[in-house]
Amino acid sequence: MAPTWPAMEYAERSKPQGSASVRSHIAERANISMADITPNNVGQLHMLNAKLFPIVYVKELYKVQGEDVKPLCKLGLFNDIPVGDICCTLEDGPDETTWKIYIMTLGVLPSYRRLGIATALLNHVLENAPVGGMFAGRR
Ligand SMILES: CC(C)(COP(=O)(O)OP(=O)(O)OC[C@H]1O[C@@H](n2cnc3c(N)ncnc32)[C@H](O)[C@@H]1OP(=O)(O)O)[C@@H](O)C(=O)NCCC(=O)NCCS
Questions:
Q1: Which pTM value belongs to this model?
Q2: Could you report the per-residue pLDDT of 44-59, keeping only the tens digit for each?
Q3: Long-range Cβ contact pairs of 42-48 (< 8 A, separation 24 or more)
Q4: Which atom from ligand 1 is nearest to the alpha carbon of 107?
Q5: Is the CB–ligand 1 distance for residue 115 below 6 Å?
Q6: What is the CATH number of the domain that holds 51?
């Protein structure tokens, strides 16, 4: 005689409605964080930008920059996986109030878009822009 299996019981869980809420459902549960660009992970930045942008960036773009502009280049991590990046440079002006942040690249891999990763990367840059720079106190 064939064995009878007990009926499966599933825990109830919330169901997102529509594609926008699916993404916010994922975003709420994911760990979105940032990492410094270091000699150890600069290769990941190369690979991300090769996938994201049609032009090949010169190696100088990736050279690990000085401490003052370190907050301006970051990898965006989705559950610790690098899926996006922001790379900016600081453009000097005659004084600190005229410094500008130039965004060279900002990109997120297609499957990870609309989860707030670019927003997190941009906010990070604005929050960590050098003290006294044009962004200080503007948020
Ligand atoms: C532009 C880009 C970086 C956005 O990354 P992202 O992580 O998806 O952005 P976010 O999730 O933080 O989106 C923030 C808001 O931007 C707007 N937005 C983002 N992508 C959008 C799109 N394709 N169409 C319309 N609005 C968009 C939305 O208002 C979004 O908020 P919402 O999802 O709550 O509606 C990403 O689409 C990308 O990598 N594109 C290709 C590279 C590129 O063009 N980079 C910019 C030039 S360097």
A1: 0.81
A2: 988 999 999 987 766 6
A3: 44/75, 44/82, 45/75, 45/82, 45/85, 45/87, 48/75, 48/82, 48/83, 48/84, 48/85, 48/107, 48/109
A4: 39
A5: yes
A6: 3.40.630.30
